[in-house]
């Protein structure tokens, strides 16, 4: 839920989420079932020209940079939603179940290993469609993350039930957010994408 809210804060669309309550009173992460999504694999639609790669490359680039920041190694091709709009396609990112606190805090070091799904998907798209990462978009996304305040990350944390995150873990996140480690991570991703080591 924090990843979804943080993505939304910096302009990366995701299906709206909420806390769902089961009949027994237990709580779970809930996400809206999106309408108007592509009925076939989106990369096949790119192959046949129904989706233009140049039109979606900026969104894919933003998501790629964000996934590195939250350490989402699990971005396979089916973890993008393509929703038909009046003009073109909206690209939504979802499923951060193996990102953020899944890896512990502080976040693991980068770059991702070559066998991680985020990198496997990236290399498939590169082999199929050529270079599509827009470095201006990745830089802009990372700058937006750098500008997210402690208050904003606390709002994201507080969007889910308090029982989901012990106070000491919340404090660890906030301390990391205000630390040099966070800004160093952002700088490392910028540099890694710029020089190709994170691509």
Notes on the protein architecture:
By secondary structure, the chain is mostly helical. The protein has one domain (2-195): Phosphatidylinositol 3-kinase Catalytic Subunit, Chain A, Domain 5 (Orthogonal Bundle). It contains 8 helices and 4 strands. It has helices at residues 2-9, 42-47, 53-69, 117-129, 135-146, 150-157, 167-177, 180-195, and strands at 17-21, 27-31, 80-84, 89-93. Strands 1-2 form a two-stranded antiparallel sheet. Strands 3-4 form a two-stranded antiparallel sheet. Helix 5 (135-146) packs antiparallel against helix 8. The model has no long low-confidence stretch (mean pLDDT 91).
Features:
8 helices, globular, Phosphatidylinositol 3-kinase Catalytic Subunit, Chain A, Domain 5, two-stranded antiparallel sheet, mainly alpha, 199 residues, 4 strands, two-stranded antiparallel ribbon
């Amino acid at each position: 839920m924090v990843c979804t809210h943080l993505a939304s804060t910096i302009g990366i669309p995701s299906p709206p989420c909420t806390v769902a309550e089961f009949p027994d009173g237990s709580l779970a992460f809930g996400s809206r079932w999106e309408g108007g999504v592509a009925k076939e694999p989106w990369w096949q639609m790119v192959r046949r020209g129904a989706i233009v790669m140049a039109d979606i490359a900026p969104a894919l680039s933003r998501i790629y940079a964000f996934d590195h920041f939250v350490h989402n190694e699990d971005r396979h091709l089916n973890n993008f939603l393509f929703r038909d709009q009046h003009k073109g396609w909206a690209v939504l990112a979802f499923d951060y179940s193996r990102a953020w606190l899944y890896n512990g805090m502080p976040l693991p070091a980068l770059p991702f290993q070559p066998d991680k799904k985020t990198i496997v998907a990236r290399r498939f798209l590169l082999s199929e469609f050529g270079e599509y990462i827009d470095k201006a978009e990745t830089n802009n996304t990372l700058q937006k993350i750098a500008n997210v305040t402690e208050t904003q990350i606390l709002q994201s944390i507080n969007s889910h039930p308090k029982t989901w995150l012990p106070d000491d873990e919340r404090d660890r996140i906030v301390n990391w957010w205000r630390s040099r480690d966070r800004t160093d991570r952002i700088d490392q991703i910028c540099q890694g994408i710029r020089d190709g080591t994170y691509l």
